Amino acid sequence: MSKNCWQMTPGEMASSLRTDLQSGLKDAEARKRLEEYGENRLETKSRLSPWKLFFSGFADFMVLVLLGAVVISVALGEWHDAVTILAIVFLNSILGFIQEYRAERSLEALRELSAPQAHVIRGGKALTIPAWQVVPGDLIRVAPGDRIPADLRLVEVTGLEADESPLTGESIPVPKSKEAINRPQLELGDRKNILFAGTTVTRGRATGVVVASGMSTELGKIAGMLASSEAGSTPLQQRLDHLGKILVGICVGICVLVGMIGLARGEDFRLMFLSAVSLAVAAIPEGLPAIVTIALALGVQRMIKRSVIIRRLPAVETLGCATVICSDKTGTLTQNQMMVTTCYLSGEEIEVSGHGYNPSGQFIWRGKEIKPTAKDSGFPDAQGLEMLLAAGFYCNNSDLGLELKTKQWRLTGDPTEGALLALGLKAGLKKGVVQRLAEIDFTSERKRMSVLVEEEGNRLLYIKGAADLVLALSTKIQWAGKVIPLQNRERHKLNQVMDVMARRSLRILALAYRPLAPGTDQLREEDEQGLVFLGVVGIKDPVRLGVKEAISQCHQAGIRTAMITGDFPATARAIGQELGIIRRDGMVLTGAELDALPADELTRIISKVDIFARVNPYHKLKIVKALKAQGEVVAMTGDGVNDAPAVKEADIGIAMGISGTDVTKEASAMVITDDNFASIVAAIEEGRG
Q1: Which residues are catalytic?
Q2: Which residue among 150, 181, 344, 670 sits deepest, i.e. has the most Cβ atoms within 10 Å of its Cβ?
Q3: 314-334+544-688 — its CATH code?
Q4: Are 229 and 618 in contact (CB under 8 A)?
């Protein structure tokens, strides 16, 4: 292709892939392409047999020295020593085998993300086929809940949104369109006309043409990086290897020296040889590997009490040596749960406290708590506040439920709607009180959603959507308990407030309503005119409790924290400033800027970069390698599939236990059971202790 697939129009794409946008590929052509491109699967690398994997542990230098000591002990008739040393060698090999066998499972976990089936159009017929039979040029239909079988260029779209968190790490569903994007370089999160293999449709329907399958997909590229990245030896392993070589040198030197002194005194050669060898065997600390293993195992037990599970024993000591922690933003530094933190109406700002989707929190106005739904709310425009909350609460298709096992509130539906639902529950609103009669869906083109409800005998249209759009559709405003005309003065003031909220990296939604005639039971887009503007809410993914203090502790201990995220630079910078990650001379580097930097320039400046924004899985791997090249001992945290290659490459890979995917857990050296950055700092304390 002369252009990238996102730069092409649907017609150009069809021509390039020799397919038909109405009838798809013919069966004969599909079979031919299956032979040409291969099956739509992630490749499996040839795995070592369990026996080969077990005996590969005997290649370690210190183990070879101990095996040599076993041979010499047997030759000298010291069977007791030989059996003891051999038992220690086998114990270490068994531990190593378990660790390596677990690591081999990371690619298997990645393959589980592949879709089992695909809905294709071939020869004008709609068919459901095994996903491994999908080929480039196939026409695929997708609907809510579908897992995407291959990378698709969209050609027809109706209100489509997709969860791309496996690839980008960002939890908010991404609106999609079919329009060409005429930019030659584009990060994954900006390719709005592409659906990626392994992601999931959350809303809407679409048809797309397969542009990449198998290992050529973005998911396949992650599999390739995961297979090629190697977990290097830890600082402790390097020091033990060095110690082993020194000990061998000393022992050989002692053997030669004792033998030469004995021969010089006229002693028997055979006697002196046996004496020198016996001395050398005695000097080898055969108990050292066992002592190290026991010490690390005790550290593992202590870390379990601090919400840390160690998957590879040397990781205990490596943690104590860490000089840089590369942390994913979403779900590690933040809660990965959208929450309304600010409401603005009637010229007043209300702060909202709480934790993610947990429906408990306070409404604070001018420094004091107010009760939005109480008879005496304490707010001057009580009616306007209650209607604003109701608009977000009823114009909503999400649901929240308490998970009994984890005691965590879980969302079913869109994260933004989940934030509005939790806001209403905090205020005391209840579902089922108001009857919903009709709805006009949200789409990426409309950028708004409307519902018709019956409340106390009145028919009301509630609407939520993009602030500028809802404001443009409004002709009146709820202000200080009254409905007044929406003049330019109020519009200007609202735009100023929204600009300030945007600079705080808040996602802004506007809410409005319109009374409709009694008996109205249908909604039309024409009804979304002449609205009464209620106000705006600011939504964000709040930082986790204790993270700011933990980062401060890291700085005091000489450990630098770098944020690596797929989010936009402005949002990442705002979170970084809130947490104290950005230093005075700290830099923010985007994925596009990272691509443009020569390798030597990246190595030169990487120690000055505190935030990496709009990065993809390849960038994360590149960052970790560059830091290691600088002599840093790198800890890398992650939860999504996109983090797995970098997690595996780091000196110590850290996966999240609650939100982490199986892929990342299998690639990691340790797992944080509470998903909290503060637990990593506690584990470092143990590693240093």
Answers
A1: 328
A2: 150
A3: 3.40.50.1000
A4: no
